[in-house]
Amino acid sequence: MELKSNDHFDAVIIGCGMSGLAAAIRLAMFGRKVIILEKHNAPGGLNSFYSFDGRKFDVGLHAVTNFVRPGVKGKPLTKLFRQLRIDRDEFALCEQKCSKVAFPDVELNFSNDFELLVSEIEKAFPNQIDNFQKLVKAIHDFNEFDLEDKDRSAKKIISQYITDPLLVDMLLLPLMYYGSAKENDMEFGQFVIMFKSIYQEGFARPFEGVRTIIKTLIDKYRDLGGMRKMKCAVKKIITQNNNITALELENGDTITADHVISSIGLVETLQLCNDQKTKAEQSNIGKLSFVETITILDKQPKELGWNDTIIFFNDWQNFEYQKPKELVDPRSGVICMPNNYQYENNNELDEGVLRVTAMANYDQWTSLDEDHYAKQKKIWYDTLALKAMSFLKPINNDSTNDKDKLDNLKKQTVYVDMFTPRTITKFTSHLDGAIYGAPNKVKNGKTHLDNLYICGTDQGFLGIIGAMLSGISMANYHILQKN
Ligand SMILES: Cc1cc2nc3c(=O)[nH]c(=O)nc-3n(C[C@H](O)[C@H](O)[C@H](O)COP(=O)(O)OP(=O)(O)OC[C@H]3O[C@@H](n4cnc5c(N)ncnc54)[C@H](O)[C@@H]3O)c2cc1C
Fold first, then answer.
1. What local confidence, expressed as pLDDT, does residue 398 receive?
2. What's the mean pLDDT in 152-169?
3. Does the Cβ of 244 fall within 6 Å of ligand 1?
4. Beta carbon of 429 within 6 Å of any ligand 1 atom
5. Radius of gyration (C-alpha) of the chain in whole angstroms
6. How would you classify residue 474: left for phi > 0, otherwise alpha for psi between -120 and 50, otherwise beta?
7. Which of 148-162, 331-345, 388-402 shows the lowest per-residue confidence on average (mean pLDDT)?
8. What are the structural domain ranges in the chain?
């Protein structure tokens, strides 16, 4: 679309990720003149997609969390469909098979049926089952969507119920890996959101991956007459007397708006403002970043006896969730096999896919020159592949040593890719490759400016469903309900 200098909008949305798209749809639905400005040429933000060598990849999608079956009312997914007027068939969500949390001597399987997790805890931690049920009741009674709620340590609160630190670690690992911006803890409200979305609701995935979801959102927005300008970064937010007076764009144009919702992150947004607030927020840059390896196999994982959808692993005596001292911390991580969903008509993805995620150190990855960067990627690819193999059935029963195990995997491998914290920042502009953004969130989305609001990751609702709900809530709360 053509954008002219001095164009005026009811609302500008910065960023065309999940939260920005959802906020924009909501505003367009109520007749607001709204535009999304996006720095890159592809929509989807942190959870976009790309093609390489004729293969289609999701940037990161392991699972759409918050899955509930048709007919279940009052849950985040159903609220999302209702607010965006999307038919649930459009997302084409297919349920996971089974996932697990695997620690050195104990495993907990879980699926989209919460009772499986309850029975697994009863078996592995018989002394804790009553405590667990009390925790579940406290989670049920908690209002995680209270936008004015204060920060509290999840670890402290959980430990008041569950007295075995191993079970605390096992319950926290998947929730932290899929959403905690804080080292070694979570904010309790976020713990509740993640507990419900992962253990009590569940995982699903469209057969075509994240592009199905993005296409649905883009089509919806276009049909509502919403405007979108790609490859159009916001360079500066010009302010006066606690208000935004204009937005300066990378191409030199200047536009104005009554309201601005930014989905690019709290500190990232404040850094665009030409006032003093920025300095105070520097300490709120997230420290947690990740690497992920992607291995394309010439077989379906189930042919190798790998039937889990997602394995959250830890092989250390306790679980440490913090920025590693080395380039990567391979002691814990996530193994995901997107093939292992219950696709309609027993459809199968064309190739086998094995994704392995682990915590990584942004500063170390960005300090490498090109040559060392490529070398380190290879080294850490092998380390993580080997680690994954220790949680998966051996490819050949006679593979006894690490070299054999790796060689056997490589014989089944047709393609590999890997992203690092450096890739994340390059493609999403999130400071320090921090996928889950700032440790201290702004739940009510308010900033120091009266007409600038934060949505998405740094507002505090998590994952792609959370991000969309965040966009919806911020558009409703700050713009639609005000008028
Ligand atoms: C590798 C990976 C795997 C993940 N896996 C899952 C998963 O399996 N399940 C799940 O639920 N969630 C997952 N997530 C998290 C999920 O993707 C995010 O929570 C969600 O997409 C965040 O959306 P958002 O709209 O808040 O932000 P973003 O997606 O970050 O959107 C912000 C957008 O703003 C743009 N932008 C930045 N600066 C500017 C500027 N100055 N001007 C204009 N535009 C700008 C960016 O390019 C970006 O498109 C994953 C994330 C990653 C990175």
1. 63
2. 96
3. no
4. yes
5. 22
6. alpha
7. 388-402
8. 8-69+208-283+440-480, 117-197, 287-435
Counting from 1 in the atom list of ligand 1, the atom nearest the Cα of 462 is 19
| Cβ of 417 less than 6 Å from ligand 1 | no
Distance CA 131, CA 12 (A): 47
Tell which residue, 453, 293, 462, has the closest CA to residue 388: 293
Q: Is 61 in the pocket of ligand 1 (CB under 6 A)?
A: yes
Question: Measured between alpha carbons, how far is 119 from 288 in angstroms, rounded to an integer?
Answer: 32
- The predicted model gives 398-426 an average pLDDT of 89
First to last CA, the chain: 28
* Gap from CA of 17 to ligand 1 centroid (Å): 5
Q: With CA atoms as reference, report the closest residue to 433 among 365, 376, 336.
A: 365
**How many whole angstroms separate alpha carbon 123 and alpha carbon 359?**
30
- Residue 46 alpha carbon, nearest atom of ligand 1: 29
- Asked whether 294 lines ligand 1 (CB < 6 A), one says no
Q: Ligand 1 within 6 A of 179 CB?
A: no
Atom of ligand 1 nearest to the CA of 470: 26
pTM of the model: 0.95
What is the reported pLDDT for 483?
A: 61
Q: Which CATH architecture has domain 8-69+208-283+440-480?
A: 3-Layer(bba) Sandwich (3.50)
* Amino acid identity at 261: I
Nearest alpha carbon to residue 19 among 481, 483, 453, 480: 453
> What are 47-104's pLDDT values in tens digits?
888 888 888 888 889 999 999 999 999 999 999 999 999 999 999 999 999 999 999 9
| Residue 76 CB less than 6 A away from ligand 1 | no
Question: Residue of the nearest CA to atom 6 in ligand 1?
Answer: 61
What is the distance between the alpha carbons of residues 80 and 93, in angstroms, rounded to a whole number? 14
| Tokens, residue 161 | 């119920």
CA–centroid distance, residue 346 to ligand 1 (Å):
31
Beta bridge partners of 236: 248
**Overall average pLDDT of the 458-475 stretch:** 94
Q: Does residue 63's CB lie within 6 angstroms of at least one atom of ligand 1?
A: yes
Give SS3 for 128: helix
Q: What tokens were used for 243?
A: 């208000």
- The strand ranges marked E within 83-146 are 93-95, 99-102, 107-110
Whether ligand 1 lies within 6 angstroms of the CB of 438 is answered as no
User: Is the separation of the CB atoms in 40 and 231 below 8 Å?
Assistant: yes
Ligand 1 binding pocket includes 48 (Cβ within 6 Å): no
| CB 237 near ligand 1, within 6 Å | no
**406 close to 386: Cβ distance less than 8 angstroms:** yes
Beta-sheet strands, E only, within 65-222: 93-95, 99-102, 107-110, 204-206
Give the residues across from 314 on adjacent strands: 332
Ligand 1 atom nearest to CA at 43: 49
Cα 290 to averaged position of ligand 1 atoms, centre (Å): 14
